[in-house]
Amino acid sequence: MTKEAENAVEVEKLAKRYGDLLAVNDLSFNVRKGEVFALLGPNGAGKTTTVEIIDTIRTPTSGKVSLLGMDVTKKKHDIVPRIGVLPQGFSSFDRITVRETIQYYSRLFCCRNTDVDGLIDLVNLKDKAQEQYKNLSGGLKQRLGIAIALVNDPEVVFLDEPTTGLDPRARREVWKVLLGLKKKGKTVFLTTHYMEEAELLADRVAIIAKGKIIAMDSPAELIEGNVNYMVLTLQSVDEKVFEIVRKMRFEPVYDNHRNIKVRLENTDDVQKILNAVKEGGASFLGLDVRKPNLEGVFLKLTGETLREDPAGERGAE
Amino acid sequence: MNLRVVGANLVVSIKSFYRDKTVVFFRIAFPVILILVFGTIFMERDNEIFDLDVQDLDQTKSSVQIAEAIGVSGRFKITQVAPALNAAQYAKDNKRNLVLIIPKGCEDSLRRRMGLDDPHASVTLTEIHDPSSFGVTTKMQVLNLVLAGINQEMSGKPPFIKSAETSILAKKYRFIEFFVPGIIAMAVMTASLLGAVNVNAELRQKGVLRKLSTTPITRTDWILSNILYQFILAVLSTTVMLLVSYGVFHISLEINAWLPVFVALAVFAFVGLGMVLTRVAKEAESAAAAADALMFPMMFLSGTFFPVEMMPEFLQKFAKVLPLYYVNEGLRAAMVSADNMAALRYAAVIGIFAAVVFVLGIMTTTLSEEAT
Predict the structure, then answer these.
(1) Which CATH superfamily is domain A3-220 in?
(2) Domain residue limits, chain B
């Protein structure tokens, strides 16, 4: 099998400069065919710039980007018919219905066999097929955007922040659609600043910060390799519990709800703490043991939290 | 160029158009309203009967006959002003722009002239007028012509110098026939320029063009579909304007192949100009402002509402660098004077301009984000 056949995307020493700002700095990574690859990072990390260079919207300052074996700066016309793109902040023609919009984009790709009804079903917009774009909610618009990205049955689908700005319910609806794409074996290149989105959908995640990739692996490997602790939460505790745990040489802290949180490196420690609390005659209403997630990975690698910034959600990267 | 892509864009543009009732109204009804309003104003002027207030201070049989003679001319409807009133104050209070005063002693002077054959006997009628009033000059000119006619009549001899009018045009044309081609040109210009600027700036700002840049559509496909769309709307609005003009004002214009030629050239020229503007001014608001800054001078200085010859010489020279001037003059050459050679000359000028801005439009238009 050739290298091009294995990798849908190959990025080598990619850099992009806007005036004095170096938005993307010496990025190198590959995306394998058939995998869901997520570029995870906070706003302004360089995710959109990177994806827009790969999907031919922007041009790089330096470096080499190959998509489906073709140089993106030289073969745009050959690449475009083979990819599908949901750009950041997707928008369409206000007074055109869902069905007409899909038909329109299908005609742009000169596709004669687009299954318009199938796409409408895939993104669960059957009830809204005759609705004009301007009357759709944010989540429905994003789902239409995904359907449009699929009109030409692309080999690679680029989804730039597909759930940014959506409420949790709409976000889950979009995730369902993306999981459907994953099942179909599509190569998906996803950018997001939601760690749970990357964890749920991606086969591999690249964490990007300040224009550089700082870690790349499967979500499980990233967590395993970078964070080796768990967090025990004891809910609605009486004050004796805090003292009991502290005397065991752990470092308990109160959270905003007066729950006690304890960072543990060994699963046996959970039982030890529960036994000590019971023996000490203290009580609690519930407990929760959590493995760390990509948030923890990001925190460890950058010293910063990866949190949603509503004010900058749609900001340029 | 891909016709299937151009066709797909055209369908989306037309659907977006007819589903937006406000756009339909302004695109179709606005030029029609202009034609109806200006047409009505100027049609009235062609056969206008002026109101004239006459103050007879002589109150004699002769002075009454003079006032009656003015009324009999058919150009004035006479209203008598009481002799005791101050005529100037009366004009101000009643918003009259012209009051004619027949002085005391009018009959005596007439008797001396007619009975005693005294050549020095005369009467001076005073015209009290408001110079700031639109149209008072025309009214005074007509009044003086009527008075000259009465003088001639009283002399009992036929005039020595007579004049005969021969039009350079085959038919007798009225102002409305001058006006309609100008309004067609103006409507095509505003719709094409603003249409291209507004739609493209809005689509760019909303990110629709960024999405389109990830499809196989090319800049040429995009501009051509914009031009075709504007041409279809221009043909529609021109047809409606002509139907209204024929139906309401019974206009008499030559409708020939030049009309669609000039409409097409104007659409090409102004959509191309709009595309260039959209590239230069990236925000929708600044692009619209730039379009307005181009449109308004063209509208008023290119001979749309009145002939360029009425303007000072330097403005006439300026008018000749404006593309709308050549559309106006070309349409009038084709529709009013049926002068094919003149129409060809104007078509050549606007054609060259259209070709240049079309190529510039293609060169400067970009669907991708990089150029914004």
Answers:
(1) P-loop containing nucleotide triphosphate hydrolases (3.40.50.300)
(2) 3-43+170-371, 49-155
User: What pTM was estimated for this model as a whole?
Assistant: 0.76
Torsion of CA B67, B72, B75, B76, to 10 degrees: 40
A219-224, long-range: CB within 8 Å, 24+ apart, which pairs?
A: A219/A294, A222/A294, A222/A297, A223/A291, A223/A292, A223/A293, A223/A294, A223/A296, A223/A297
| A56–B214 CB contact, under 8 Å | yes
Asked if residue A191 lies in contact with residue A48, where contact means CB atoms within 8 angstroms, the answer is yes
Is the interface score ipTM higher than 0.85? no
SS3 A232: strand
Alpha helices (runs of H) in B207-303, residue ranges in sequence order: 208-212, 219-249, 258-280, 284-301
Instruction: Report whether CATH 3.40.1710.10 matches the domain B49-155.
Output: yes
Residues 205-224 of B with CB under 8 A from A: 206-208, 210-217
Instruction: Name the architecture of domain A227-297.
Output: 2-Layer Sandwich (3.30)
- The strand ranges marked E within chain B are 50-56, 76-81, 98-102, 126-129
* pLDDT one digit per residue (tens) for chain A, 317 residues: 444 457 999 999 999 998 888 888 889 999 999 899 999 888 888 999 999 999 999 999 999 999 999 999 999 999 999 999 999 988 999 999 999 999 999 999 988 888 899 899 888 899 999 999 999 988 899 899 999 999 998 999 999 998 887 788 878 888 888 888 888 888 999 998 888 888 889 999 999 888 888 889 998 888 888 777 888 888 866 778 888 888 888 888 888 778 888 888 888 888 899 889 888 888 888 888 887 777 778 777 777 665 544 333 333 34
Interface residue B232 vs chain A (CB under 8 A): no
Cβ contacts (< 8 Å) between A89 and chain B: which residues? 207
By a Cβ cutoff of 8 Å, what residues of chain A touch chain B? 52, 55-59, 77, 80-81, 83, 85, 87-96, 100, 104-105, 107-110, 132, 145, 148
